[in-house]
Amino acid sequence: xxxxxxxxxxxxxxxxxxxxxxxxxxxxxxxxxxxxxxxxxxxxxxxxxxxxxxxxxxxxxxxxxxxxxxxxxxxxxxxxxxxxxxxxxxxxxxxxxxxxxxxxxxxxxxxxxxxxxxxxxxxxxxxxxxxxxxxxxxxxxxxxxxxxxxxxxxxxxxxxxxxxxxxxxxxxxxxxxxxxxxxxxxxxxxxxxxxxxxxxxxxxxxxxxxxxxxxxxxxxxxxxxxxxxxxxxxxxxxxxxxxxxxxxxxxxxxxxxxxxxxxxxxxxxxxxxxxxxxxxxxxxxxxxxxxxxxxxxxxxxxxxxxxxxxxxxxxxxxxxxxxxxxxxxxxxxxxxxxxxxxxxxxxxxxxxxxxxxxxxxxxxxxxxxxxxxxxxxxxxxxxxxxxxxxxxxxxxxxxxxxxxxxxxxxxxxxxxxxxxxxxxxxxxxxxxxxxxxxxxxxxxxxxxxxxxxxxxxxxxxxxxxxxxxxxxxxxxxxxxxxxxxxxxxxxxxxxxxxxxxxxxxxxxxxxxxxxxxxxxxxxxxxxxxxxxxxxxxxxxxxxxxxxxxxxxxxxxxxxxxxxxxxxxxxxxxxxxxxxxxxxxxxxxxxxxxxxxxxxxxxxxxxxxxxxxxxxxxxxxxxxx
Length: 624
Description:
9% strand; five-stranded antiparallel sheet; 10 strands; alpha+beta; 28 helices; 57% helix
């Protein structure tokens, strides 16, 4: 029988183990798994309701919510596209050079700004770059999160754990560390991190399904898009004689999609000038329920050849045969009507509903021509297709409607517009304003003028007041609520571990081990314990719990506490094996379509190797 004092500890271990297993499996939403774990702690009496719900009042939750809003403003204003274009001009299409440049920029920002704020600034830029290169953002987003943490080791204020450890160090009677005391440690970790992440993530991307793409220097042209989706091979032209029973009827009355399974892509109509002088003008007409077919119209129809022939036979239409070698430009013009790719984010409301239920036609006047899902192109029965996260929809409509769609939500990304159209679509008037707000936020956090949460919330409020969003609901739509709930539910786990004595037992064992095996072994134990604890709970509580013990071990061994202090700071800062160990890891999880196992696959080896390097390097940088 177990003593009653042991039951809370056993229950905590069991709940944490089951939670990690479900996170690893990735079959259930992460917020639901975390919420069930939190409720389990309450039901079994490990935590009181007040303790369990404390995570929802933690300042980090408001910080992350503000970060999502800022990220949405960066995307909507066009700042992300502008910065990504500048980076592309510097790095070209060489992904290795681009990767190194992005990581260096991220680390430099991370040296002055929290990892959460760094990811908020860089994530929209990385997403835009990935779209421009026609590659998956997963190649860059996970390294981005990791490098934001590594960059935090370059300065004292780059990471909360640094400041926490310094505070403990000062309270133990030692002189405070300076702003750049961490610089030698940061440089070593930065170089090593980049050397490992560059080949590891490149290999990882090549193994991910449906994530490959060919780099390109400029946006896809409309002809490129038409060829990519093989529109020419699935589209037919029919002319409408004046005697056809189709003439004089609206598309709503005809219901050609329901009756024949074909899709009307566009209608072209010759407009004669008054008096019969001058060349005729060809009008491009987007299909809509109220559009009435006229005699002499040319209709562009998508569907199988058999269905198009049946339609032509029933309504007396004449098929226009294409000659061998006809250029695709003979079929398509993109003056009044354009096409573009719409890539769905995991947070999009369109995910897991059919095209017919999407409201794209009703709300934006757009038609879905095709769906790219990995290497598969879906052309048949489009209306009934259930859309998935990561799908690329080829949509058609007027350029005004495409621009309106682009500005309507951060949960999808409009790509594939021609470079000149992309430059003119949407208003870029807000770019200077958004950039100014971000620079002020960075300055506020870097100088410590305001707390991080206040700086972020003020910046988010400025984005709303400055007209970067249509209304409050529009700003709220940029927040990933799944991530917020997951983090809020996991934060109280630190309280559970401390309350049940798990942290005390680990600390006592570490002290005993250090006294028995010497300073290097003790340093390795300090680093390892901090690293393991940080996988489960957040960095700042871990640094607070372990730093006093680490300093005590150094004093008992009669050696300098500096290597131990930096070991705690470094290990608490560099946790890569879990998506919920740091907010920056959690922020990129949805956008990169990562699973819990993905973090284990890339982050765990990096975290272990970084530990070996740090344990060997710290005594060299700060001798015992």
